[in-house]
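User: Could you write out the 3D structure of this protein bound to BES? I've included everything you need below.
Assistant: Certainly. Input first, then the structure.
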Amino acid sequence: MEYSWHLLVGLVVVAISAVTSESVNRRSSTSRVDNDVDYRLPNNTIPLHYDIRLVPFLENGNFTFGGEVTIDVMVVEQTSTIVLHAYDIDIDNDTVVVTSDNVTYAISNKTFNTDLHFYTLNFATSLEPGNYSIYIEYVGILSASMEGFYRSYYTTSSGETRWLATTQFEPVYARQAFPCFDEPALKARFTISIAHWPNQTAISNAAVASTSGADSTIENRVWTYFETTPLMSTYLVAFVVSDFEYQSNDDESFRVWARSDALNTTTYAVTVGQEILADMNDFTGIDYNLSFSKMDQIAIPDFSAGAMENWGLVTYRERLLLYKDGVATTRNKQNIATVIAHEFAHQWFGNLVSPLWWKYLWLNEGFATYFEYYSTATVETTWRLAEQFTVDYYHPALLADSLETSHPINEDVYSPSEINAIFDTISYSKAGSVIRMMQHFLGGPVFQAGLQLYLQNMAYGAATPDDLWEALTTANTNMSSPILHTHVDIKTVMDTWVNQKGYPLVTVTRNYTTATQEISQERFLLKGRGSSNDTTEYKWWIPINFASQANIAFTATAPSDWIRSQDDSVVISGFSPTQWVIYNVQQTGFYRVNYDDTNWGMISSYLQTSAYIIINVLNRAQLIDDSLNLARAGYLNYSVALPVTRYLTQETSYAPWAAAFTAFTYLNTMLANSTGYEDFKTYVLSRVTPIHESLGHEELSSDEHITKLHRLSVNSWACRMGSTTCREKAEELLLDYYSSSDPTDSTISADLKAWVYCEGLRNANTSVWNFLWERYLATDFSGEQTLILSSLGCSQDEDILNNYLALSISTNSSIRSQDTSSVFTSVYTASPSNVDVAFNFLVNNYEEISEFYGGMNRIGSMLQGLASRVVSSEQLQRLKDFVEEKQDVLGVALTSAQQAIELAEENISWLENYEADIVEWLAEEVAAIDEPQDSGSERVSFGILLMTISIGVIGFI
Ligand code: BES
Ligand code: ZN
């Protein structure tokens, strides 16, 4: 298991930045395995129905299960073999029987292929096309691996350990619970029966059909029999045996399950969940209850991903479902609502209509990511989720997709490790962002009608992107006045976005004499123009629109023009040479925009006037994200990009600040060792101080939802950039708490804990650290556990940190395996000096770490995390020495270790290219701030002047 992109961004929340989800473990691997082997099942046999009977043994010391499956199949062409998936289960070969119409077919031999996970039945004589049934008995292990049919546990308030058995099948683990045709397009119906103790409940995708009395053949366990499901993919099958309880709606068709001690934290999920399901019913025009008569959601104590959309039985990490008033943060609450929306969107996009193959995973995850925010927004209407979408998903997608190593949204994958690897930023965030782009260039009505048609056409089937384009095209044609230009073909456009990696940089070059603008496209690369040896011609169909100072068209998101893939450039005319233009209104197109220095200058100056608010808030976030990434990649000088951030002294909105904090996070890492670091801190602090002062560190009853998110990141940044008032306040609040008589009654508001704990711990002694560690051990609310774990790495004391790191790889630390990775990340993201502490720990303990995680894989991802923070040649050298010395033992981690060295080398060469420019700009800027006459406010008033005098006359810069 390795870190996901969510994890990597997520943990920074506490340390410094403001982002969306917190950590989840997402499997990923960058290595491609040998494609000469065929991982796909032959298509001679199709499953129709599975009858599965399971008996889990959940007693300490005996974590196994017995299974029995009858699969009705249709042989579609004559064959002498039937190939199924099975992995890590022990099939009793003697029990296997294949029949058709009461005739038994002799099996000459049965073979396992453990690489391909194939179980092959070879028949003495060929089977003719027709219906057959395959019967198999087997046993399996309820492992602690969080995949397949696995075990989890919790401790009751009286200290008793209780076990549960649960499932995680996506993408390729159903085969670890029962032999099956484990590919998403091979849909079948499932009839499931589970035996369990009378004091336990079994739940599954479908509702309970009936139950039995004690069965003496299995120590008087009882049986729960479930109704037969509609046609569905194997990866969506789920079942849980536990002693959990639930809260529900009146007719109990919508239930939320948790261990009984946590039952009172399920209320929010019951309420918001029903509202979101109703919204999705509405949007799709297809009633969820046509497929299943009930919806169960359940919080699982040990869970590998964040949540899983099993049809009718959605499983979650505890902190993504359980909400505890007063203890949970605003971010926790938002995550709960949006994760539910994500998984509920899958009930249509993924479950009703599944991808034909994992290559089209984005048809699941892209839509789920899109609805995660846009469906929640219909229920939680004041949360400003549209603004948050761009900074949480769209900007990170632009960043990830600007790497040479990116991949197309439609990516060929075959092996399990390749399949796991595409659960990434491209399939989630890029696809979600490209879907949002479609919504805007088609218009809401066509978009919705097209999606409804797609779902109707493909219901209970498996789709490709072409099915989607076709439905959208039909919907567009049916619309009486579509907004799409008639020369634009949806499939032609979309193929350029889903079949090639990367995205365009649109460059606007203005001719101030002729009042024309030439607009061209090229692929944007983070390492800079010309940094790639790739000779492929990357060109896109790009929807274009713009606003200008004279025509403030920031609400019109429909494209006014298109750059076609065959166009090198287009020319647009008719703008006043003395006024700015801004392209990509509300940043709905998936691309960056660069301008000539003059236009950038006009934008920067205008932002510093009181009229800055006229520029749409999403475009303000865009200007920051684009300019600083263009500079980072060498397309724009820092001396032009950094001035865009000057206006932040007057910015109060969340999205532009979130974009700025992301950009500053990079610079903060890179400049950590630089002579200009103090100037950097002074500059950022000077920008952040006004908003820091106005938000303060106290919650107000009048606070908007987003203000609470904003206050946390602003306070974290103010402290980090050296504000002594901030640091003193955090220390005071933590010490008050530490010395209070009742540690269960904290006066620190939940939303500020991450800031108070982290900043308060920096200079705190061991007993304060221990105090918080005790709070970690004492709470059984998962949201709070994660928050504390992520703060404990903020200490700057080497002994404390080493002790903490050691805990994370000790088997009796009481940190759940799903959470251990937060520890290492929380240490090295907390400060530049902690990077060295974490690195030394890794060097000194690599054997123990690999033993704890059962392999070297984790070392690889740890090295990469550290490498992204390497900023000195000494650090680089130490990294190289370690990898060289240990190359024989690194094994599977060697490739990622080598990539880590590359990452570190890139940092060093970036510094060689850009550090001097940045340091010079910062020095001048800081000198200007320090001048008695505050030139910052002069700039503002000059800007206001610019605006108030009839603007057309004054050329700026
Ligand atoms: N289908 C995924 C769960 C999943 C992730 C299965 C990776 C296999 C591998 C689920 O819908 C999902 O995307 N969950 C997210 C949570 C979310 C709100 C982004 C996750 O686990 O990170
Ligand atoms: Zn998903």
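Residues 671-946 form a domain with the Zincin-like fold fold (CATH 1.25.50.20).
User: Perfect, thank you.
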